[in-house]
Amino acid sequence: MGAQLRQLRQRIKTVKSTAKITRAQELIATSRIVKAQERVKASAPYARHITRAVTALISHQTNVAHPLLREDPERRRAAVLLITSDRGFCGGFNANVLRESEALMAKLRNEGKEPVAYIVGTKGVNWYRFRDRAIEEEWTGFSGAPRFEHAETIGRRLVADFLAEGEEGLGEIHVIYTEFVSMLTQAVQTRRLLPLEIEEVEASKDNVPPAYEFEPSAKTALDQLLPNYVESRIWHMLLQSAASYYAATRRAMKSATDNANELLGVYTRRANQARQAEITQEISEIVGGANALAEASAGSE
Amino acid sequence: MASETLKVGLVSPEREIWSGEAEHVIAQTIEGEMGILVGHVPVLGILVDGSVVRIKPVDQAEWITAMVGSGFFSVAANEIAVLAEQAELGSAIDVAAARAALDEAVQAESRDDETVVAERRARARLRAAGEEA
């Protein structure tokens, strides 16, 4: 076998096994998307109820004064929570989040604020470490399958930092995550988490909240509900990001498989050509040799 | 009114734990236990972190018990939503694990808020599972 042919066959083998791996990863991601979507769906009732309750609470009180609703332009520190993934193989998933965060931080700096980074996911953490940037707090190890405790931990920390007195206190908290729009589209979103803006989940006929009595009082209810609401928002974002991560992985792995298969075609054609060229050469060598022999023996007679 | 029932949903952030029709729900608020029957006025109550919620379903003789953590419940138009960040049905509780958690919380060196809550939750777990605590 000629050197060129051997090299090509080697490459075909490599590309084939790569295609097998990426194909398998594509299938794994596909099955995980379904699971992640189910979790998003299962979390909807809680989000709906808590939003309704918070809306009811706030709309009932004419002058709600709660620290979590306070806008204080004097506070310069602004937190940016980045939700990235722990692992790669997901195309531009993390790059998009990081790009968006750079834009947001630049904007905050222009407004005279001091952005502080809180990061979820190894990829984001490494990106910051590599550039020697300060990270206020990091959480890793659960980006693919978050549990509510994680949202709770993150929420507690952010709320505590938001309420902290003096220099350390945060003036606002932004979150950058990836919303799962559909199997094909995932959009990077920037949301302000605190001070709270209550998002309307449904604007329908029963939008007028009932006149609740509060047990024990509206103030305690607010104290308890608002942090829970923040945690529920973070939970929602973690779930959305996890679903988006798998969708991004699936797409990246699909195009990797497609590319590998295309390469395989090119290499196979080249290998065939090389093989044929080798055969042709061999035949012409044999024919040439035979002719030379025939001529030599004809000359000697 | 009498023929109506309460629509109950016991929900945690991760999923809906239990939902169905009930005739009586008992929950513990910070100020005391509260029983809710059909036709109750709209109320929004804060649950004791680490307490037991009991539900009497329409089609069963047995009460359903569940342990709840930090959360609240809202009653409006015969619909009750019990929302808790931690919630487990009594029938799904791992008694041995709950007892271990209780022991750990009781023996903890420092008596800070965290261990107190952990102890209350462990006790609520055991009570919801029908054990002594």
Pick out its properties:
heterodimer; A: 301 residues; alpha/beta; Helix Hairpins; Pyruvate Kinase, Chain: A, domain 1; 2 domains; 6 helices; 61% helix; 13% strand; B: 133 residues; alpha+beta; ATP Synthase, domain 1; nine-stranded mixed β-sheet; 2 helices; ion transport (chain B); hydrogen ion transport (chain B); membrane (chain B); ATP_synth_F1_dsu/esu_N (chain B); ATPsynth_dsu/esu_N (chain B)
Protein described:
- The complex is a heterodimer of chains A (301) and B (133).
- Helices cover 61% and strands 13% of the residues of chain A.
- Chain A is built from 6 helices and 6 strands; from the N terminus they run ααβαβαβαβββα.
- Chain A folds into 2 domains: 63 residues, Helix Hairpins (Orthogonal Bundle), CATH 1.10.287; 229 residues, Pyruvate Kinase, Chain: A, domain 1.
- Chain A has 301 residues and is of the alpha/beta class.
- In chain A, strands 3-2-1-4-5 form a 5-stranded mixed β-sheet, sandwiched between helices.
- In chain A, 33% of the residues are buried.
- In chain A, helix 1 runs antiparallel to helix 6, helix 2 runs antiparallel to helix 6 and helix 5 crosses helix 6.
- In chain B, strands 1, 2, 3, 4, 5, 6, 7, 8 and 9 form a 9-stranded mixed β-sheet that branches.
- In chain B, helix 1 runs antiparallel to helix 2.
- The chains are: A alpha/beta (301), B alpha+beta (133).
- Chains A and B meet through helix 2, helix 5, strand 6 and helix 6 of A and strand 4 and strand 7 of B.
